[in-house]
Amino acid sequence: MTLETMEPTPTWDADAHEDTVDVFAELAEDDAVTITVWGGDWCKDCRAELPDFGAALDAAEFPEDRVEEIPVDRDKNGPLTDEYDVELIATIVVERDGEEIARFEEEEPVPAAVYLADQLRESELSA
């Protein structure tokens, strides 16, 4: 099952977010990196965040088969929510070889793609 809210925003400007796209394009080259997205098409925060995140992944040519979209119900219950301690949606987890390397949750102060790109740049610099 997929989330309609992950459909890329057609007006999202990849050139204005070149640094963000570059981070996800680099991750696209690493077959060990996967992204899991929990959300709900009924959720206003998901409708605000996920289309631009989908556009960023699209611009970076991140492989769709390495992005898992998990719909949750209005109580925020769904597959793997307990295992990943998902309490807020949208929640996005980036993993390498099954190890979490970045996480976005709905209450972050910047858009999901930008927030995750910043986290990933920092984690790569400190690695």
TrEMBL record:
GO terms for molecular function: isomerase activity. InterPro entries: Thioredoxin-like_sf (IPR036249), Thioredoxin_domain (IPR013766). Residues 3-127 form the Thioredoxin domain. It comes from the Archaea. Keywords: Isomerase. This is Thiol-disulfide isomerase or thioredoxin. It comes from Natronoarchaeum philippinense. The lineage of its organism: Archaea, Methanobacteriati, Methanobacteriota, Stenosarchaea group, Halobacteria.
